[in-house]
Design a protein that fits this description.
Elements: E1 31-37, E2 41-49, E3 55-64, H1 79-98, E4 103-108, H2 110-113, H3 118-129, E5 133-135, H4 138-150, E6 159-165, E7 170-176, E8 179-186, H5 190-196, H6 205-219, E9 233-236, H7 238-250, E10 261-263, H8 265-276, H9 280-287, H10 291-294, H11 297-311, E11 316-318, H12 323-342
Helix pairs in contact: 1-3, 4-12, 5-11, 6-11, 8-11
């Protein structure tokens, strides 16, 4: 079955929580709010289902957090982090109501699943906000990312890898002919690797080599990652979107150049070296980065560079799609299938 293509979503105004287009659709339209509780940020995207298994974005918002950084000696997420999320969920719930979203699907990823008090965390959030949060496994996170991105790929791409570099983990998948064949989740993301391998301003050759060796060593456990040289690597996540924006501006392309945005191997190496050689303030000013991206982009770019070289990929295709799009597609597809069954179709 061929998955339908969907409209381009540009990430440049994520921080502005902007509304896309005139909101003149009928109140009877099926709307879904997807909340993604990640290690670095919590995102809300409200989608509206179409009649042809497609959807359009109605609203998006983002709040920056750093979940999982403050764990106690037992590996539990701190009370401070748990309570930080609650007002954000209340805010996002109000936004969903204002935009007539009839459903909310909330998921949490690495920061929560890597904590030893996972059940306490999600129970507290549901008690305080009424929002039930599903904790995704690494394999589920990779699957929904695959669902989200494959419908927006160029028609000539039938095979490739997907990498989703988050704050607390990196998901890697291999697909062929719109079928997900392999996936894994590495417990290494831009936030936790920044904390473990140098911090905000201390990236030197030793810390860079240590991070690259850590990623390479984990990839050795998955032989399929080295069995398909020459394929494109589709990149997801805020760090890769930031890299695409930086490269687009370096090329003096003032408007979004398309989804996905191609980045060559030499360009990835350029940014990995250039960013690591700068301190935080220099990264902010030279590359026009927000402070909450500038402090973790070195680790994220080095993870990307290591994965890219290990798999001997041909090109990076930076996508503006991802986990939330896959969750929306999955949720709407189930609802439409159920409705067809109820109608006897």
């Amino acid at each position: 079955m061929t998955l339908p293509k969907e409209e381009l979503v540009n990430d440049d105004d994520y921080n502005q929580g902007c509304v896309h287009g005139e909101d003149t659709m009928s109140d009877n339209r099926n709307r879904l709010g997807v909340i993604d509780i990640g290690s670095n940020s919590i995102r809300l995207i409200i989608y509206e289902a179409g009649s042809d298994r497609t959807s359009r974005m109605v609203h998006k918002a983002k709040e920056t957090v750093r979940l999982g950084v403050r764990r106690d000696e037992n590996g539990n997420m701190s009370e401070q982090d748990i309570w930080t999320v609650i007002p954000i969920l209340h805010k996002f719930k109000d936004i969903c109501k204002a935009n007539r979203a009839t459903q909310i699907r909330a998921v949490a990823t690495a920061a929560v699943r890597q904590s030893n008090n996972t059940q306490d965390i999600i129970a507290r959030w549901e008690e305080e906000t009424g929002i039930a949060v599903q904790v995704l496994s690494g394999e589920e996170e990779a699957y929904y990312g695959f669902l989200g991105v494959t419908r927006s790929l160029p028609a000539h791409i039938h095979e490739g890898f997907i990498v989703d570099i988050g704050g607390g983990s990196t998901e890697i998948s291999y697909f062929r002919h719109e079928e997900l064949l392999h996936s894994t989740s590495l417990p290494c993301g831009a936030v936790n690797m920044t904390m473990q391998n140098g911090g905000r301003d201390t990236w030197n050759e030793e810390s860079r080599q240590r991070l690259a060796g850590k990623i390479s060593g984990q990839l050795q456990d998955y032989p399929w990652t080295a069995d398909h040289a020459g394929l494109p690597l589709i990149g997801l996540g805020g760090g890769i979107r930031a890299l695409a924006r930086m490269e687009r501006e370096r090329r003096h392309q003032l408007k979004p150049a398309g989804d996905p945005f191609p980045i060559e191997a030499d360009t990835i190496r350029f940014y990995a070296d250039a960013l690591a050689g700068l301190n935080l303030e220099e990264r902010i000013h030279q590359f026009d980065l927000a402070a909450d991206r500038a402090d973790i982009i070195v680790a994220g770019t080095m993870i990307l560079s290591t994965v890219f070289e290990h798999m001997q990929c041909s090109v990076l295709l930076a996508s503006w799609r991802g986990l939330s799009d896959g969750l929306a597609h999955h949720t709407f597809n189930i609802a439409q299938t159920t409705q067809r069954q109820m109608n006897g179709q």
